[in-house]
Amino acid sequence: MSKIVFLDVDGTLIDYEAKCPESAMEAVRLARANGHKVYICTGCSKAEIEQRDLPELDGMIGANGGYVEDDGKVVMHQALTVEQVKHIVDWCNGRQLGFYLEANSGMYINHWFTVQAPATMRKYALGKGATEEQAAASADSFVNSMIRTDDLYRDDVNKVSFILSSYQDHLDSKVEFPDMEANTWGGKGEIALFGDLGPKGITKKHAIEVLLDYLGADQADTISFGDAKIDLSMFELCAYNVAMGNGGPEIKEAADYITDDVNEDGLYNAFKHLGLI
């Protein structure tokens, strides 16, 4: 029986230097050759994914569920309105918070992001186990992939991530933007590094439901892989769920199976354990 596999990207399919292990590449290739479908299910937008060296896939869910694509065809795309984007941009600039607008055409940043992001992204990489040298390289690569522009009132934005000066920024964003989903990432609870804002009702779980309906596929044939709290919504829906060895305690507690770390052939070993390859 063929399966439909959903893979988180950072910390699952790729490591924290944004590199996809050769064993993960091979696992995806072999699984698809065996008739299984493999999709990524990520917070990243398409522009960010296109900068990564990933294996060939059947499609993607991006922007934490705001974008769904199958075999090159857009199945769903729910972006923020221009009015919502303008509200976020003005609010962040007023608080001097660096942010990036995540669109399928690129990732667009304000002045404060160029100032704050290098240190923040180094901290993010170090928290994921990178060395100082790896963290610096990862931060530089991330920041250099962004587009600096003053044209930030856009109509193609999937979601917005902003650097937290403190956890209070996230709490205030929930009050300021009741018409949007407010989350954090880059650390648990009050040690989170980023807040993000996206369309209301958009989750990875919802996007998988949309894709399964489009494919005429059965939820019983789904398997998900993740490493972080944001992946729990995938786990709520999919029939079988795998946590990476480098994952956090919440994702491991919710998993049916815990595999090895992303850089210890975790994906390949799990695919083999599950009979996908």
Key words describing this protein structure:
36% helix, Hypothetical Protein, Haloacid Dehalogenase-like Hydrolase, Chain: A, domain 2, 277 residues, alpha/beta, Rossmann fold, 10 helices, globular
Commentary on this structure:
It is built from ten helices and 14 strands. The longest helix has 17 residues, at 111-127. The chain is 36% helix and 23% strand. The chain has two domains: 4-77 and 203-273, Rossmann fold; 82-199, Hypothetical Protein, Haloacid Dehalogenase-like Hydrolase, Chain: A, domain 2 (2-Layer Sandwich). Helix 1 (22-33) packs parallel to helix 10 (266-273) and helix 4 runs antiparallel to helix 5 (132-144). Strand 4 (67-70) and strand 5 form a beta hairpin. With 277 residues, the chain is α/β, with parallel strands linked by helices. The protein starts with a strand and ends with a helix. The chain has helices at 22-33, 46-49, 82-94, 111-127, 132-144, 167-176, 204-215, 232-237, 249-254, 266-273; strands at 4-7, 37-41, 59-62, 67-70, 73-77, 99-103, 106-109, 147-148, 157-163, 180-185, 194-199, 222-226, 240-243, 257-258. The strands form two sheets. An eight-stranded mixed beta sheet has the order 5-4-3-2-1-12-13-14. A six-stranded mixed beta sheet has the order 8-7-6-9-11-10. The mean pLDDT is 94.
CATH topology (level 3) name of the largest domain: Rossmann fold
Number of strands: 14
Distance between the termini: 13 Å
Mean pLDDT: 94
User: How many structural domains can be distinguished in the coordinates?
Assistant: 2
Low-confidence stretches: none
How does the overall form come out from the CA principal axes? Answer: globular
Q: What's the name of the CATH homologous superfamily of the largest domain? A: HAD superfamily/HAD-like
**Largest sheet entry:** 8 strands, mixed
CATH class of the largest domain: Alpha Beta
| CATH-level-2 architecture of the largest domain | 3-Layer(aba) Sandwich
C-alpha Rg (nearest Å): 18 Å
Strand content: 15-25%
Overall SS class: alpha/beta
User: How many helices does DSSP assign?
Assistant: 10
Q: Helix and strand succession?
A: EHEHEEEHEEHHEEHEEHEHEHEH
Residues in helices, as a percent range: 25-40%
Strand order of the largest sheet: 5-4-3-2-1-12-13-14
